[in-house]
């Protein structure tokens, strides 16, 4: 009887694992934003296969100037892209997941130069755009047909940091919604701040300054990208010039710094430029990319009780300039956009240890700088 019960227990565990695997589609669309100063002409779409990690080209839309950062709507019907130019614009596209086809809808001014980041709320009411050169965040309302309306408001930062070349003024780098979408947080590389605003969602003054309105990091670190923990209790910041990850306790729009940990090995003296940061789907690991002479991705274990990080390993990215990367929804692959070597490299990772295993595929594409997953159907 005991043997029968043991067998049933093992069979149940195997069924549970199988069910978890079957929860994921076998394929996804991968939408890729680029800089169009080289061979790329716009946005490309690939099919990604979750069992093999292979990429297959699907479609592209040309004549889109510098679509350097993308957002896919929660209903999977629309893709929005910043046009990272001096005049600052944002474009809307209808998206057909089965074919990967993108059709242009319209374009609007972001009221600030060099927009470099975009996010969209789940209800598809507003876009939030970080204008790097303009030093401001713009809130852009969305119409029912997916088109973009003129900006409802902008909020500009003032000030500077100690680095006279990089921090001569405000440089807003991200605009991220909190998991409950009650707040919008945006980083300012130029003033070493994370700004915090309440998101009201209406047409008039959709975001208002929170209390406290910001937190600061070490002068000269240059805040860049943000990632929330899966349990929503912690916020992680990657600093571009400091090449570090800063851990914050997060509670209803309030931040308290807990830890700062470097991305660099002891004795490193080369050029750096930390870029992107993501949490694994199971919430156990954090990944952070670094450019310059480093060209690597660091892996950290996430303490599930206090959110603190412990270094695991550092990996080359198979190219140069890993500006952006994405972890596939199954948590078994990581796709790295190597901007300066015109490639996306897919690595298999161990979801139980967080470690890189091996490169499994590669796609040649001009200056890739943003990767977004979308369900294929």
UniProtKB/TrEMBL annotation:
Pfam families: Lactonase. The keyword Cell membrane does not apply. It comes from the Bacteria. Signal peptide: none annotated. Keywords: Carbohydrate metabolism, Glucose metabolism. Gene3D superfamilies: YVTN repeat-like/Quinoprotein amine dehydrogenase. InterPro entries: Cycloisomerase_2, Haem_d1_sf, Lactonase_7-beta_prop, WD40/YVTN_repeat-like_dom_sf. Belongs to the cycloisomerase 2 family. This is Lactonase family protein. It comes from Mucilaginibacter litoreus.
């Amino acid at each position: 009887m005991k043997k029968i019960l043991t067998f049933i227990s093992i069979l149940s565990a195997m069924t549970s694992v199988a069910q978890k695997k079957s929860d994921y589609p076998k394929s996804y669309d991968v939408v890729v934003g680029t800089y169009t100063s080289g061979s790329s002409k716009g946005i490309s779409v690939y099919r990604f296969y979750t069992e093999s990690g292979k990429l297959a080209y699907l479609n592209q839309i040309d004549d889109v100037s510098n679509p350097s950062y993308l957002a896919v709507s929660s209903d999977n019907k629309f893709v929005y892209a910043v046009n990272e130019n001096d005049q600052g614009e944002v474009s809307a596209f209808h998206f057909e997941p089965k074919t990967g086809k993108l059709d242009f809808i319209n374009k609007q001014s972001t009221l600030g130069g060099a927009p470099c980041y975009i996010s969209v709320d789940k209800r598809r009411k507003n876009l939030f755009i970080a204008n790097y050169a303009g030093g401001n965040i713009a809130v852009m309302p969305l119409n029912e047909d997916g088109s973009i309306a003129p900006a409802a408001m902008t909020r500009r930062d003032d000030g500077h940091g100690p680095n006279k070349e990089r921090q001569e003024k405000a440089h807003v780098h991200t605009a991220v919604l909190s998991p409950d979408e009650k707040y919008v947080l945006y980083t300012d590389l130029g003033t070493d701040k994370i700004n915090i605003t309440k998101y009201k969602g209406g047409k008039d003054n959709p975001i208002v300054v929170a209390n406290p309105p910001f937190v600061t990091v070490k002068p000269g670190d240059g805040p860049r990208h943000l990632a929330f923990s899966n349990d929503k209790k912690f916020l992680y910041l990657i600093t571009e010039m400091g090449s570090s990850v800063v851990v914050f306790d997060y509670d209803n729009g309030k931040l308290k710094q807990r830890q700062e940990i470097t991305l660099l090995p002891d004795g490193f003296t080369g050029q750096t430029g930390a870029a992107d940061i993501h949490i694994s789907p199971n919430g156990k690991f954090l990944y952070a990319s670094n450019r310059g002479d480093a060209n690597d991705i660091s892996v950290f274990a996430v303490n599930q009780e206090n959110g603190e990080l412990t270094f695991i390993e550092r990996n080359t990215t198979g190219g140069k300039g890993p500006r952006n990367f994405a972890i596939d929804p199954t948590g078994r692959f990581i796709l790295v956009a190597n901007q300066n070597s015109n490639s996306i490299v897919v690595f298999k990772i161990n979801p139980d240890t967080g470690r890189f295993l091996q490169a499994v595929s590669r796609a040649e594409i001009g200056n890739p700088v943003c990767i977004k997953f979308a369900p294929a159907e």
